[in-house]
Design goal:
There is one protein chain. The protein has 229 residues and is an alpha/beta fold. The protein has helices spanning 3-20, 39-47, 58-67, 87-93, 103-112, 142-151, 170-190, 205-210, 220-223; strands spanning 29-33, 52-55, 75-78, 96-100, 120-126, 155-162, 196-198, 215-218. It is built from nine helices and eight strands. An eight-stranded parallel sheet has the order 7-6-5-4-3-2-1-8. Belongs to the pyridoxal phosphate-binding protein YggS/PROSC family. Residues 9-226 form the Alanine racemase N-terminal domain. InterPro entries: Ala_racemase_N (IPR001608), PLP-binding_barrel (IPR029066), PyrdxlP_homeostasis (IPR011078).
């Protein structure tokens, strides 16, 4: 199947899950995870109407941003872990970052965001499963991180992101997401501009949309298996 056909299928699946969970039509945005994929694949997705793309690696993200600079309505999301020495490149190119989990990263991003660009949209990454191998703040640390991000002039706090550990079934997936959904609701009551809960990938779309996701991150189901060079 083509990238365009894959996108049609994923969009139909999201729409079906929105309806099944009594969510408004269009409540869940699709982020095409395009890491390791060639620029031609992003162009094919763009031609099929996709505008939001997610990249995990800084150098690759910057290169793709430059290659597709003529497509001015692309919305670029950086979704991978970020080292502080690479924060400047992200601040100068991306529209969103999903993986802010440390004060140093937030400060670097704000300091390096060009004044002629809109504020960088920020999601705080939450480590739901307490895995040492994964980035993210704990549930207890969300409030203080949110306060910091909200205080920085070149950042706009938009919400939360998480990548939970794999679960055996949908009921378990929903259970893991429950405290995050609650934390997101509490955050949205505190700040007017909180509107994004970035959870859900190919294996847990149903649980994520049932748990209030407003943005799902899908790669392989759109572009095929990953390319490693």
């Amino acid at each position: 199947m083509s990238i365009a056909e894959n996108l049609t299928d994923i969009r139909a699946q999201i729409a079906q899950l929105e309806h099944a969970n009594q969510r408004p039509s269009g409540a869940v945005r699709l982020l095409a995870v395009s890491k390791t994929k060639p620029v031609a694949d992003l162009e094919a997705a763009y031609e099929a109407g996709q505008r939001c793309f997610g990249e995990n690696y800084v150098q690759e993200a910057v290169e793709k941003h430059a290659a597709l600079a003529h497509l001015t309505d692309i919305e670029w999301h950086f979704i991978g872990p970020l080292q502080s020495n690479k924060a400047k490149a992200v601040a100068q190119t991306m529209d969103w970052i999903h993986s802010v989990d440390r004060e140093k990263i937030a400060l670097r991003l704000s300091e390096n965001r060009p004044q002629d660009m809109a504020p960088l949209n920020v999601l705080i990454q939450v480590n739901l499963s307490g895995e040492a191998s994964k980035s993210g703040v704990s549930l207890d640390e969300i409030a203080s991180m949110a306060e910091l991000v909200n205080s920085l002039p070149s950042l706009t706090l938009r919400g939360l992101m998480a990548i939970p550990a794999p679960q055996v079934d949908e009921a378990s997936q929903r259970e893991v997401y429950r405290p995050l959904t609650q934390a997101f609701l509490e955050l949205s009551q505190r700040y007017d501009h909180i509107d994004t809960l970035s959870i859900g990938m190919s294996d847990d779309l149903s649980a994520a949309i049932a748990s209030g996701s407003t943005m799902v991150r899908v790669g392989t189901a759109i572009f095929g298996a990953r390319n490693y060079g």
